[in-house]
Write a structure and sequence with these properties.
Largest sheet: 5 strands, mixed
Radius of gyration: 14 Å
Distance between the termini: 29 Å
Oligomer: single chain
Number of domains: 1
Structural class: alpha+beta
Length: 112
């Protein structure tokens, strides 16, 4: 029987530049954060290439559940926070989708 869980709106795309810069080991923002706070490693895709990260995020997106909604009262932008699981890597991910654009603006591991 097919999966009938409503997982929310489909992604119109992913902000890969943001995700890689902030959450890939070679990302410049991630490297700076790791120098400042070695515990930041929790939000980093360890030992993964850019293509592996993209696959992980896409698989996590397919296995997501909505966990929160955030509304910016000034800009009126609504973002939905999802948690997803990638069975291939074992990562649990947090992913934020902009409701207006449909773009997944960021995604990062929170547990393995």
């Amino acid at each position: 029987m097919p999966d009938r869980i409503f997982r929310g709106r489909e992604a119109k795309g992913f902000n890969w530049e943001h995700i890689i810069e902030r959450h890939a080991p070679e990302g410049s923002v991630a490297q700076q954060r790791l120098r400042e706070n070695p515990d930041y490693i929790v939000a980093i895709f360890e030992n993964m290439t850019e293509n592996q990260i993209k696959g992980c995020v896409r698989r996590g997106w397919k296995n997501r559940e909505k966990v929160d909604t955030q509304e910016d009262l000034i800009t009126e932008v609504i973002r939905i926070k999802y948690r997803g699981f990638d069975p291939e890597t074992g990562y649990t991910l947090e992913m934020w989708q902009n409701q207006s654009t449909g773009i997944v603006e960021t995604a990062y591991p929170i547990a393995k």
